[in-house]
Design brief:
single chain; alpha/beta; seven-stranded mixed sheet; about 20% strand; globular
Length: about 200
């Protein structure tokens, strides 16, 4: 009765906003949850930059179409799914995630949604629930599941710490330094071995 909960960006696929920042030539959009722990603040900042530059959902989706999962991510996910249930819990949005889920073999994902105007402008965003990763893990536990969690950023720490086992994966040194008690891995083989041990 174990569900493994994984972050998406930085763990299975490259960071979408960094890829978009590079493609659009707007370095300010490289800021992610690794840099800004307050997700609401981060998203408002991003939406303002998109508005300033007249960029909308289509431009972002065009870049996402060029993004592939990290090397080995799909194989890792396939093997993990053969061992236990897996849910990707991400602060990304359904409008961003869909093409990436296809490339990953359609795993289950819980994420958020964007509010998009008829002209394609991203005007707002709707979070599924507050502290969505932590809240989701606690909800799974409340219906009888044990959870194992892994992620790379500030917004993953809640679900990692609330789980029976939690691991940092490809995290920046600053997060590893601030959380020395959390095992930190750099390869899928290491992460898979650690999860298998818990199973």
């Amino acid at each position: 009765m174990v569900i493994t909960c994984l972050d998406l960006e930085g763990v299975l696929v490259p960071e979408i906003w960094i890829a978009f920042a590079e493609a659009s030539g707007i370095p300010e959009l490289k800021k992610t949850t690794r840099d800004e722990p307050d997700y609401d603040k981060l998203m408002r900042y991003r939406l303002n930059i998109l508005k300033e530059h007249g960029l909308g959902l289509k431009e972002i989706q065009d870049v996402i179409a060029t993004i592939d999962p990290m090397p080995g991510a799909k194989e890792f996910l396939d093997e993990l799914k053969s061992l236990c249930q897996v849910i990707i819990i991400s602060d990304t949005f359904t409008q961003f995630a869909a093409p990436l889920m296809k490339k990953l073999g359609y795993p289950t994902i819980f994420c958020n949604s964007l509010v998009v105007a008829e002209n394609g402008e991203v005007t707002d965003f709707k979070m599924r629930c507050e502290k969505s990763k932590y809240t989701t893990v606690k909800a799974l536990q409340s219906i009888g599941f044990e959870t194992i969690a892994s992620g790379d950023s500030f917004n993953d720490l809640g679900m990692i710490r609330a789980s029976k086992a939690g691991f940092l994966f490809k995290s920046p040194d600053s997060i590893k330094k601030d959380n020395p008690d959390l095992p930190a891995f750099e390869t899928y083989d290491e992460l898979l071995a650690a999860i298998k041990e818990q199973l």
